[in-house]
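Deliverable D2.4 — example input (structure tokens):
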């Protein structure tokens, strides 16, 4: 386990934002399902993206790294073909996106396949799929209480599917990837209010980009015409607002910080960071590919933050709230309990160690702001977003912050500590 010592200091400068991990998964999958050759460029490599590539290669996709047009990034040449199981064991690492996206895709083959995972992924719920397996007559086995590994054999067939709206949107997206390739038409009905709608919007936009047409009624009913074909193409993955959020908050604490590579027309739910920061009084400057934040002459103000469509930016927004005037309420955040860790508990525990006044609720947080945090020793809970949030919190601490488990950033942002140092962060690895 890596331990990093951080000497509190403001950050400033320019940072090239990693490409969107959410869109990276989706682009790579769509390209793999298209006959012919696609190029997907501007990929920021991470453990999760590697997991999706492994899964697709296990189903016969040829993926080759080629020269990227963007410094420090990766481009993939992806040769789609008829899906077939060439490796019966698919290792999804710790990537929930990989697992939930790939299960219906693998079920297109009708062959036996096993899904494995590591860390918290082993126990993350899959009941929504298990219900579908039962209705479609699949043979499947799991470890105790439905945990991984999952051994599956059955061929997905067109028809009607029902999913509650309070499950991960990844289940909906997984079906949306697979169902257009079946011979018959299908219908997905969401039986309760849909959470994380923005992620379904990302999936639909990516499907359309690759030639797949899906009709929907207010994101609660999806009509999927069967017999469609994905169209190969060249594509560039847009920047990731969930990763930019760390630097934008750091810019509020010091700055200016210029975040390069973001698309203002993005459908990412985490783009809500712009409106939330503005509501709290941050000084923002926007143009089409750059988003800059400068430190405010006055303290940022408390607000109410709805986490329903932007759960991934909540840990770092909790950091901002902890040093903002007034009491911030974070609501509709229950989904954070089933991420890489229980993020509500982790944020409450670790920011509390740094002197934050924070109260954990069933589905949210109450945070009373103060001028500074104290510093201290904290744990990352093997969660990349907890690690990065604690690093940003150090900018407002009065003494050293010691971060245990700093290696967890590999999951989504392996270069985080390098970028942190390049912006002026004073760190020492032990």
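Example output (designed residues):
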């Amino acid at each position: 386990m890596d331990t990093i010592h951080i000497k509190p200091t403001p950050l400033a400068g320019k940072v090239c934002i990693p490409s969107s991990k959410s869109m990276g998964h989706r682009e790579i999958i769509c390209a793999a399902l298209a006959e012919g050759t696609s190029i997907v460029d501007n990929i920021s490599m991470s453990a999760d993206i590697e997991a999706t590539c492994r899964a697709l290669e296990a189903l016969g996709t040829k993926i080759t790294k080629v020269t990227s047009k963007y410094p420090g990034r990766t481009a993939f040449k992806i040769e789609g073909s008829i899906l077939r199981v060439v490796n019966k064991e698919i290792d999804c690492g710790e990537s929930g996106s990989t697992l939930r996206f790939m299960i219906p895709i693998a079920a297109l083959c009708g062959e036996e396949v096993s899904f494995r995972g590591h860390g918290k992924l082993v126990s993350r719920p899959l009941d929504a799929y298990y219900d579908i397996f039962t209705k479609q007559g699949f043979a499947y086995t799991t470890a105790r209480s439905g945990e991984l590994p999952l051994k599956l054999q059955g061929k997905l067939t067109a028809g009607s599917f029902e999913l509650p709206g309070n499950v991960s949107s990844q289940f909906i997206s997984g079906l949306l990837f697979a169902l257009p390739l079946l011979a018959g038409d299908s219908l997905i009905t969401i039986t309760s209010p849909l959470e994380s709608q923005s992620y379904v919007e990302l999936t639909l936009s990516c499907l359309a980009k690759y030639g797949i047409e899906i009709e929907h009624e207010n994101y609660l009913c999806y009509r999927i015409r069967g017999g469609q074909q994905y169209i190969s193409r060249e594509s560039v993955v847009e920047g990731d607002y969930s990763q930019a959020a760390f630097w934008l908050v750091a810019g509020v604490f010091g700055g200016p910080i210029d975040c390069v590579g973001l698309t203002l027309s993005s459908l990412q739910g985490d783009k809500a960071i712009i409106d939330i920061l503005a509501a709290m009084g941050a000084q923002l400057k926007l143009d089409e590919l750059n988003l800059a934040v400068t430190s405010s002459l006055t303290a940022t103000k408390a607000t109410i933050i709805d986490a329903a469509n932007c759960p991934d930016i909540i840990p770092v927004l909790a950091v901002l709230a902890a040093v903002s005037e007034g009491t911030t309420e974070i609501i509709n955040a229950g989904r954070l309990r089933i991420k890489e860790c229980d993020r509500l508990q982790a944020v409450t525990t670790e920011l509390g160690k740094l002197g934050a006044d924070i109260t954990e609720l069933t589905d949210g947080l109450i945070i009373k702001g103060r001028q500074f945090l104290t510093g201290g020793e904290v744990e990352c809970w093997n969660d990349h977003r907890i690690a990065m949030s604690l690093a940003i919190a150090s900018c407002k601490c009065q003494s050293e912050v010691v971060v245990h488990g700093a290696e967890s950033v590999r999951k989504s942002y392996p270069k985080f500590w390098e970028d942190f140092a390049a912006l002026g962060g004073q760190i020492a690895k032990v």
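The chain has two domains: 3-18+239-429, 21-224.
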